[in-house]
Amino acid sequence: MQPSDFEAHAATLQMTSPAQLPLSKRLKAGTRRDHDSVDTLIMQSRPFESLQRYDYFLRLQHRFHGSIDALYDDIELNRLLPGLSELPRFEAVRADITDLGLPLPPTPPAVAPPSTHAALGWLYCSEGSNLGAAFLFKETQQIGLNGENGARHLAAHPDGRGLHWRQFVALLDGLELSESQREEAVSGAVAAFDFYRAALRELFPTI
Ligand code: HEM
To answer: Which residues touch 53 (CB under 8 Å, ≥6 apart)?
Structure first.
C-alpha cells in the first residue's frame, strides 16, 4: 500500500468508526443483531395468524409501550427532543385492545433507565419500531383489522410514517453528547430490545 493509499484508508476508517457516526447510525449499528433477533422471534410467534394470537401481540405492545410511556412526558427528554410528548403510542395500544373487546391489562410499572442518555436509547428503539410497523400493519388486514379498529398503534401517522422518524433522527443527531453519553444511549437501546425480547418470551405461550 502506498503511503497516500494508507492515509486514505485510515481516513475512511476514522470516518466510519463508531465514535464518528451520527448517534442514530451508531444506535442502529449497535442494535442490528438485537433488532434481527426480535424481528425473527415476532414472526415465529405468528401474531397475525388469528385474533387470539394478535391478542398476545397486543399484550406485548401494551407491556412495552406502557413501560416507556412516562419517558415521553419527561421534562429533560422533551428539552432534548422537542415534540417528544406528542409521539407515544400507549393510548393507541389501549384503544386497540378495547376495540377487540378485550380487558385492559394493568398498566405495567415504568422502566427507569439509569440516565437521561440511556433513556434516549429506549426512545430510539420505540420510535424506530414505527418503521417496521408498516409491514405489521399490512399483516393485520389479514385478520380484518385497520387503523380505526384494532391496529391503530401500527397505523401510519396522518403526516406520514417517515416524517416523524426523520425529525426524531435529526434531533438525536443534533445533540452534543460526550463519548460516554453516546455509549449510555447505545446501552439503553440494547436494554430496550432485551426488555422487548423478554416480554415476548413471557407473553407468547409457545415461544
Ligand atoms: C416482525 C417485526 C419487525 C419487522 C418485520 C421490522 C422491520 C423493520 C424494517 C424493515 C425496518 C427498516 C425500515 C426502514 O429503514 O425504512 C425497521 C427499523 C427499525 N425497527 Fe423494526 N421490525 C420489527 C420489529 C421491531 C421491534 C419489535 C422493534 C423495537 C422494539 C423494532 C425497532 C426498530 C428500529 C429501532 C428501527 C430503526 C432502525 C434504524 O435506525 O434505521 N422493530 N424495522
So the answer is: 45, 46, 47
